[in-house]
Write a structure and sequence with these properties.
41% of the residues lie in helices and 16% in strands. It contains 9 helices and 7 strands. The relative contact order is 0.13.
């Protein structure tokens, strides 16, 4: 009996230790940022025809591709997936600017804090704040140019869809619509399904509860789901 009790106590200590480690290092387990020097990114962007996108602090926050001619009719802000980074998303530029019918698009590839060369650290708060600030700054630029504000749409892939959902709820009047590619409903539910022995819902700092947020957004949303997607 004593041996059994000691074994149970050791297992309990190991379990508690695992919970502590998961809590302390959860963001390292969630986010997988790719890091690059700004000079390297600028060189690659110049070869691809992308314009640097800087915020009002002068920080490089992404890349912009203006519609060639005539002027664009709408703007797309792309919020990339977890292990991706903004410059690698230039395929959305080729896709949206090749349309022969419908809107003519300016495409803005937003970078997250802690990704590529952008300073900061990734978290739900920092990623959503970055998206909201981008919406606000682009709107302010339209006013400064005394041009009619472009309709702004958000495209989010994977975790970017969760960022888009939270940003749209904060700026519902400024987001005309959204496109979600391979989204998940709620990171707490997802984490609980992947780690059933852990009290994920109690431990999680970044919840990305898109299912809750979207109850307060009433614009159009298109979903592109990947039924066999096992990467999360």
């Amino acid at each position: 009996m004593k041996t059994i009790l000691i074994s149970l106590a050791v297992l309990a200590l190991i379990y508690v230790g695992l919970i502590v480690l998961v809590y302390l290092f959860q963001r390292q387990m969630i986010y997988f940022p790719s890091r690059f020097a700004e000079s390297e990114l600028l060189k690659d962007a110049a070869e691809s025809g992308l314009q640097p996108w800087r915020n009002n602090k002068g920080e490089l926050i992404g890349w912009v591709a203006r519609y060639p001619k005539p002027l664009a009719q709408a703007r797309l802000i792309v919020l990339h997936g977890n292990a991706n980074h903004a410059h690698w998303c230039d395929y959305y530029i080729k896709a949206f600017q090749s349309f022969k019918h419908g809107h003519r698009w300016d495409v803005c590839l937003l970078e997250y804090p802690g990704y590529a060369s952008r300073p900061g650290a990734p978290s739900e708060e920092s990623l959503v704040n970055a998206a909201v600030e981008a919406i606000d700054e682009l709107k302010a630029q339209d006013h400064l140019k005394s041009v009619r504000p472009l309709k702004t749409f958000l495209l989010g892939e994977s975790i970017g869809a969760a960022v888009a959902a939270q940003a749209a709820v904060r700026r519902p009047d400024d987001v005309a619509g959204m496109i979600f590619i391979a989204p998940f409903n709620n990171l707490a539910d997802l984490g609980a399904s992947l780690m059933p022995i852990m009290p994920v819902r109690l431990l999680l700092k970044d919840r990305y509860a898109s299912d809750e947020a979207l109850q307060n957004y009433h614009g159009p949303i298109a979903f592109l789901n990947a039924g066999r997607d096992e990467v999360i």
